[in-house]
Write a structure and sequence with these properties.
GO terms for molecular function: hydrolase activity. By secondary structure, this protein is an alpha/beta fold. Helices cover 45% and strands 13% of the residues.
Length: 374
């Protein structure tokens, strides 16, 4: 990669099954490049399901289209059973094990709680990811850095595990820190461990969960790794349906509200802060900017043009029967409470619809994206 070219960061936020939308966007972008062409991105930052996506394509930074094709191939063949144990026997056995574990004496190690058993996802990630390729891409100069953000249940901090060029250093800021590490399946599982839904993952001596929980500054990993431009593919759910707000919110309404807040609100605030900083730097001469150790960082923020909820309602019947039963037992109607359903509906028809939505949204923004990725 030419040294004078700007470092462009790809930032993918979390959202469970919704992350299939990001695959569609990347598919459209990849078609604008020759078959054998390096990635336009040299920095990759992901949280939750977004972390799984960036790891997959960063491994193929020297051949962008191939990396995106592989990622699309994986998502297009997903089923719930590849993410969690979806059979009646599997789900019942998992919940019984969780219950019995909590009846044991305190000196016994108890497994982290999660309604769903995500061991199939661990197997899938071990099968499809070649983590050694990340280091090869770094040594070849095709990859400047990759970051996977998790949340520490011990310290209550956001931790970004990164792998990249030797010039990158650890950082410590308020409620967040960056630590150099070789990215593995454990980091991805931790980052995607949605609270209560999937169990936390142990890394070293601590347990970590979904990276969106304590992530007050989602742009920080990109900025700390030296990004000049940032392309953000967000999964903010467009609220198109007017609900009856005179009714008291139930468990599903509260859960959907909290999940939407966790995955989106901090990014909105961080983008506002970046825009204000850029405006101030524009008013300063270049020498003064360098003296302050700051620079203008361009960004493009792409989010879905349509709500996920109608699609979740349309395809909720594809969800395994036992999963639907479990949701109803805890007071959630998959059809009526589509906000939550949209996160865990890992079924082919729904995923294909999200990939197509992302693809079409990227085509509509083609001129903006092409100019930004120069």
């Amino acid at each position: 990669m030419a040294k004078d070219k700007p470092k462009i960061s790809l930032l993918l936020s979390g959202g469970g099954a919704r992350a299939a939308y990001q695959v569609g966007v990347l598919k459209a972008i990849s078609e604008w490049y020759p078959r054998v062409h390096h990635s336009p991105f040299t920095i990759y930052c992901g949280t939750s399901a977004g972390a799984i996506n960036v790891t997959a394509i960063a491994s193929y930074a020297s051949c962008f289209r191939l990396g995106v094709k592989k990622l699309e191939w994986i998502w297009a063949r997903l089923h719930s059973r590849r993410i969690f144990r979806a059979s009646t026997l599997g789900m019942t056995g998992h919940l019984m094990n969780q219950w019995f574990a909590r009846l044991q004496a305190e000196h016994h190690d108890r497994p982290p709680f999660g309604l769903l058993d995500n061991r199939p996802l661990r197997q899938l990630l071990n099968q499809v990811n070649n983590y050694e390729r990340l280091e090869k891409q770094i040594l070849a100069g095709n990859l400047h850095g990759i970051s996977v953000t998790v949340s520490s249940y011990k310290s209550g901090q956001s931790v970004s595990f990164f792998q990249g060029q030797q010039a990158l250093t650890d950082w410590d800021r308020a409620k967040s820190k960056g630590r150099r590490s070789l990215i593995t399946t454990e980091h991805l599982l931790a980052s995607a461990a949605i609270p209560l839904v999937f169990p936390a993952t142990r890394i070293g001596q601590s347990y970590y969960g979904d990276g969106s929980i304590h992530q007050l500054a989602p742009l920080r990993p990109s900025l700390k790794m030296g990004a000049d431009k940032i392309l953000i593919i967000d999964l903010i759910n467009q609220k198109l349906d007017e609900k009856d707000y005179t009714k008291a919110p139930g468990l599903a309404t509260l859960g959907g509200h909290l999940m939407d807040t966790i995955f989106s609100d901090t990014l909105t605030a961080d983008l506002e802060h970046l825009s204000r900083t850029n405006a101030l730097l524009h008013a300063l001469p270049t020498k003064q900017q360098k003296k302050l150790g700051m620079k203008i960082v361009e960004h493009v923020h792409l989010s879905p043009s349509q709500s996920f909820e109608p699609l979740a309602r349309k395809y909720y019947c594809h969800m395994p029967p036992m999963t639907r039963t479990l949701m109803r037992l805890i007071g959630i109607s998959p059809r009526d409470d589509a906000a939550i359903t949209s996160y865990i509906l890992f079924e082919p028809a729904y995923i294909h619809a999200l990939i197509e939505l992302g693809y079409q949204d990227a085509l509509e923004k083609e001129a903006i994206l092409r100019n930004f990725l120069k």
